[in-house]
Amino acid sequence: MIAGNLHSILEKLPSGVQLVAVSKFHPVEQIREAYAAGQRVFAESRPQELAAKVPQMPADVQWHFIGHLQTNKLKLVLPYVSLVQSVDSIHLLEAINNWALTNGRVVDVLLELHLGAEETKQGFTEDEILDIATAEKNYFSQDFAKNQFSSANATPTHVPLKGVRIRGLMGMATNTEDMSVVERDFERIEALFRKVQAMGLPDFTELSIGMSGDWPLAVRHGATMVRIGTGIFGPRV
Ligand SMILES: *Cc1c(COP(=O)(O)O)cnc(C)c1O
Fold first, then answer.
1. Range of 227's domain?
2. What is the CA radius of gyration of the chain?
3. Digitized pLDDT (tens) for each residue of the chain, 237 residues in all
4. Is 45 near ligand 1, meaning CB less than 6 Å away?
5. Ligand 1 mutation pick, 211, 215, 225, 226, max ligand atoms within 8 A of CB
6. Would you say the CB of residue 210 lies under 6 angstroms from ligand 1?
7. What CATH number does residue 188 fall under?
8. 0.90 exceeded by the pTM?
9. What total number of domains does the chain contain?
10. Is 150 inside a domain boundary?
11. Which of 5, 134, 171, 201 has a 20 to 30 Å separation from 160 between CA atoms?
12. Where are the beta strands (DSSP E) in the chain?
């Protein structure tokens, strides 16, 4: 069933779009089934669960982290992942940067845009993302130090973010059956993505939108990665 699900998604997915298999809450046996069918990129949302699964899977698996990440959990996550998709605060961005500098690494990250109506959802506002992108751009163009965030409510940082590479944006659309609402969310994040890309940031190439229920729509709005759990593994246990 898992192999069949994977193949039917891959048949419809344009070749430039990466399939990220969301394996959270699913046992390792199911992840192995997907691996045997050729899938190599998996995503987890809880640090402990990720750290427990990594040693049980082959070393050529690429793990992404997609959940809320607390700064005291970085060492459970950052050694194992090729991408943190869910960076949702300056505080976290700086903590990842510090960890990376201490450990001689550069960590690839996506900035999570707050989409949808739910109060509890994590993520940056559009203005915060534009501030970070502007600071990055100034850093790369050597006009300013990379650490000058202009947003009034952003914590100023004193560490140039040399330990992180901002690869793009991630967003979760409003949880609704109403596809016109979902489409509006995707339009917003796509517009922001294009705007930041137009600023000429190096490495800013990834737009991670689309889950089991809305990924075809996300692909039409420029997704370069879709994150699919239920559609591959079935309901989470
Ligand atoms: C769980 C999760 C997904 C996958 O959701 P499905 O509806 O099962 O495909 C995608 N993205 C994030 C951030 C998630 O937490």
1. 2-130+161-197+204-233
2. 17
3. 999 999 999 999 999 999 999 999 999 999 999 999 999 999 999 999 999 999 999 999 999 999 999 999 999 999 999 999 999 999 999 999 999 999 999 999 999 999 986 656 689 999 999 999 998 888 777 544 444 555 444 444 434 689 999 999 999 999 999 999 999 999 999 999 999 999 999 899 999 999 999 999 999 999 999 999 999 999 987
4. yes
5. 211
6. no
7. 3.20.20.10
8. yes
9. 1
10. no
11. 171
12. 18-22, 41-44, 62-65, 81-87, 107-113, 164-171, 206-208, 225-228
